[in-house]
Design goal:
This protein is mainly α. The protein is built from ten helices and no strands.
Length: 270
């Protein structure tokens, strides 16, 4: 009965995260980007960073609760699941040919690195040192430097024509959504501790469960972005793939190079 209660709580918190992303975060980012005149790449990266909030909260909560392994696997599994969800969205909207464009080579390369590195760390049992955490932070800054150096727009097509609301409205939606996701993610960390410590569920298994949950914001972002361009008739412009690919890579690299090191530092401190 206890495990059913925990799973029910996990489902409830998942629902809060999904609704927060779908109706607050994604629309808020879209409106803020339009108001600030961001291009598709900037919109995608902003979406990727904001939708990584659940991973950040879960990793910190797991580290504080003494079950950092679950947090580690949350990151590793999230980066894998994000790729799977991205490819599902790409194939669902028949945009797979866009990935052959040379303009996307750097994003795809960093996206693959974001999946490979956590698995390498696990294989060599390198999951908890200050030196490693510092090196991962350096990897993120290398990603940002190279991304800025080799940035090129896949196209210069007209942006999707949408009604632009006030920037205050957009930022308010993002902040409220982020607060709801943060609270839900923190309680998810508590659920992780209960499953691992009290019920004896393997940490890697809990991490994968949390990985599925924390990848829901990215999935929502991918499909909403493609749907937006589909309705506007701009799916052939490459801007949609640019936006979703940058959302994927920004989220995964943030998970690897910012959130995982933060979790390591917290675990070492605790």
């Amino acid at each position: 009965m206890t495990i059913l209660i925990k799973l029910s709580l996990l489902s409830l918190l998942t629902g809060v995260i999904v609704l927060s992303v779908r109706f607050l975060i994604v629309p808020g980012i879209n409106q803020a980007s339009l108001a600030l005149k961001f291009d598709s790449k900037a919109r995608g990266q902003l979406l990727g960073y904001v939708t990584s909030i659940p991973e950040l909260v879960i990793v910190i909560s797991s580290a504080v609760s003494g079950v950092f392994d679950a947090g580690f696997w949350n990151i590793a599994s999230s980066n894998i699941i994000n790729w799977v969800l991205f490819l599902i969205a790409v194939f669902a909207f028949r945009q797979y040919r866009d990935l052959k464009n040379k303009a996307f080579i750097d994003e795809i390369s960093f996206g693959l690195i974001s999946v490979a590195l956590p698995l390498i760390l696990y294989a060599f049992d390198l999951k908890g040192s200050a030196l490693l955490a510092t090196c991962l932070l350096f990897v993120f800054f290398v990603y940002k430097a190279l991304d800025r150096k080799f940035v090129q727009r896949a196209s210069e097509t007209k942006e999707v024509d949408e009604e632009v609301r006030s920037l205050f409205y957009a930022l308010s939606s993002i902040v409220v959504g982020a607060i709801l996701i943060t609270l839900s993610g923190w309680y998810l960390g508590g659920v992780a501790k209960s499953l691992v410590v009290e019920l004896g569920v393997a940490a890697w298994m809990v991490g994968w469960i949390l990985g599925v949950v924390s990848s829901i914001p990215e999935m929502s972002g991918f499909f909403v972005t493609f749907q937006k361009h589909y309705k506007a008739g701009t799916l052939k412009s490459l801007d949609d793939t640019q936006e979703t690919l940058d959302a994927l890579v920004a989220s995964n690299m943030c998970n690897l190079g910012i959130i995982l090191p933060v979790g390591m530092f917290v675990a070492l401190a605790v």
